[in-house]
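dumping this here before i forget
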Amino acid sequence: MTAWLRRAGRGRSHDGGVVVWSVAEGRRGRRWRWTVSRGGWLERSALAEVDDRGLFGRLELVTAAGQLTFHPDGDSRFAHGNVVTPAGVRHLSVPWSAEWGIALEGDPFGSALLGGAGATLVIDAALSIRPSEARTELRPVDDRGIPILDDAVDWALEE
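structure:
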């Protein structure tokens, strides 16, 4: 058995966003955390879980619009969650298939993690979910499954 991936790093996406990330892998899959900032301002913060097959399991996303929580139900026929904003709570429930992915508009790093190339759903900065209209252009990933960033550096998460 190979060692579980437990790394952290930073780099720049092609659109100039600075991505700071960490990943912790275990028996059930990988838990990713990342932020995207631009010009010293935080644009988004996210946590995502993918199972041991690389399939989407959970997303928690914070933008200036509010907080989104989103996950498939047990039989993967629907995905549920909510969006919390200063105006209140908006509940989410959409059809889902286990093979589907998610694209995060303006976040090529997160889209690469969540299967965004074949994305069926797109989440924008306003935390609205819509069906994908086109195939998403993704960052390539390295042999560890980490999206490749410009000026990238990464470190061991644990000593």
